[in-house]
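Example 326, ligand acetyl coenzyme *A.
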Amino acid sequence: MSQIRSRIIGTGYSLPAKVLTNDDLSKMVETSDEWISTRTGIRSRHVASEGEYTSDFCVKAAQMALKNADMSAEDIDFIIVATVTPDNTFPATAAKVGKILGIRAGVAAMDVNAACSGFIYASQIADNMIRLGQIKNALVIGAETLSRIVDWNDRNTCVLFGDGAGAAIFKAYEEKGTSADRGILSVKIFADASHYDTLCSDSGVSFNQKSGFIHMDGKEVFKIAIPSLIEGVESSLALAGLSLSDVDWYIPHQANARIIDSVAKNLEIDDSKVIVTVDHHGNTSAASIPLALAESVESGKVKAGNLIVISSMGAGFTWGGMVVRI
Ligand code: ACO
């Protein structure tokens, strides 16, 4: 029976011009390129300059995605931004993006906070709305300026994070309703609030009127990230009625190359099928997956018709997976 699916018809990304290398960081805190690259796989990250905001990266990524989709802002009927670093406490960064892009009145705009799993959570919402026939074209963005909530004196965390945005245009298409369809074939999202304090900002609006800094128990996050990323892959593939042998590309959340390697080894996914950007992006939380997707489409690695499995894990803890034939 035919079914409405969300096809990803355009992707885009934006990164701050300023690049911070491991050597730059070794002049700021007691660390070294050797320590950072062997423990995390990160060599450099982009960081926002003064006067650059999360919405700036969202808008540039959205403009590139719209161009690649051969669409204009007037065609968009839903905006969703996944972020933990909004421009303002309120309104939503999605509203600011709508204002700058000149999106017409009446189009719903909202943010979602699911940390590093934000893009998968946002995709779940947009995909459900498309499949229910409530909207036709969604602008789905993951964006962060994590540099604003990093304590630049804390070597345990400041070496890990970066800034940027990735965007995707989802469009409703009538498909056959089989696993051979193009578009989003499944999404699974999960959370376990018992880990609320394991990875968190030490402050908040209601708590103490500040945005605070990132704190985490790195070893505990590392341990739980691996099975969570695996569950994201396995559960979304099972829901789509597909298996790992069908997959052309795996896009994991980009937190640490050692986590990615371990997940790929466990799942027996060949390294050549794993998209890795953490080396030059660092961990950009909700932006990491759409950034990796948009970069690999732009480079020609990911092609129309390829089957991609995506999985993520982040603060909350949240985790999830999705399967998309691009
Ligand atoms: N440079 C040099 N030394 C450092 C640095 C640094 N930047 N940071 C910590 N160290 C020191 C520590 O102080 C410690 O020293 P000590 O033994 O004298 O106390 C030593 O290095 C070892 O520290 P560990 O914490 O044991 O190092 P580990 O091998 O666990 O690596 C890391 C730390 C990279 C944070 C790792 O635990 C990790 O990647 N965890 C996952 C966390 C993550 O990626 N979080 C991102 C958000 S969550 C997400 O996106 C999924």
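Summary: The chain has a mean pLDDT of 98.
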